[in-house]
Amino acid sequence: MSGRNAEKNNEKLFPLFRRNLSENNVGLYAATADKLALWAARDKAYYPFARPVIVELLETANSQVRRHSNAPDKPFHISECPESLKPWVEPYIKLLKAVAPFYHLFPEPQLQARLRALLQTINFDLPATQPTRPPSHSASPHIMHRAAHSASPVNRLHTPVIPGSAAAG
Predict the structure, then answer these.
(1) Which of 54, 123, 130, 136 has its Cα between 20 and 30 A from that of 43?
(2) d(C-alpha 154, C-alpha 104), whole Å
(3) HSE of 93 in the Cβ direction (CA atoms, 13 Å)?
(4) What SS3 class is residue 138?
(5) How many domains does the chain have?
(6) CA distance 73 to 69
(7) Nearest-CA neighbor of 124 among 77, 88, 83?
């Protein structure tokens, strides 16, 4: 799959991921966060169209954590996380930690500010000044379609595939 085709495919998948992160189903939320964390762990995920969507997906995950907290109208912070919220918080942390190393691939100041605010919810502080540099590639990550093994929406999620790997075919 070419880089542009992968980007078009991702454009179709992002709304599904947003919807799954918004569902009141911790299993679906966690599975979606895990798949996004895998995808976001590669620098090729940070092409221009995807960067604002990535931040929006992180904000959606944050909203879900707040919604299930004891104080949904208050901003979430890890220091105030009750044990009952951990099934929602752990996937959120994993997702943020997958994106954090690629902060420098967000040259847009408004996206940097939003991402920094999200990272601070888990005590992940970035240096005050981070060099910004554009991605060193033009291809986006490939997403492979898998046949569903059951009727579960979790199994119908598309799994990230590294370009050139055996799984990419």
Answers:
(1) 123
(2) 31
(3) 14
(4) coil
(5) 1
(6) 9
(7) 77
CA distance linking residue 79 with residue 10, whole number of Å: 34
Give SS3 for 142: strand
Residue 111 in tokens: 């996206």
Specify the pairing of strand 159-161 against strand 142-144.
antiparallel
Compute CA 169 distance to the chain's CA centroid, rounded to the nearest angstrom.
Answer: 24
What global pTM score does this model have? 0.74
Q: What is the token pair recorded at 22? A: 């918004």
Residue 148 sits in which domain range? Answer: 3-168
Six-digit token string for 10: 């991702």
For residue 117, the number of C-alpha atoms closer than 13 Å in the C-beta half-sphere is 12
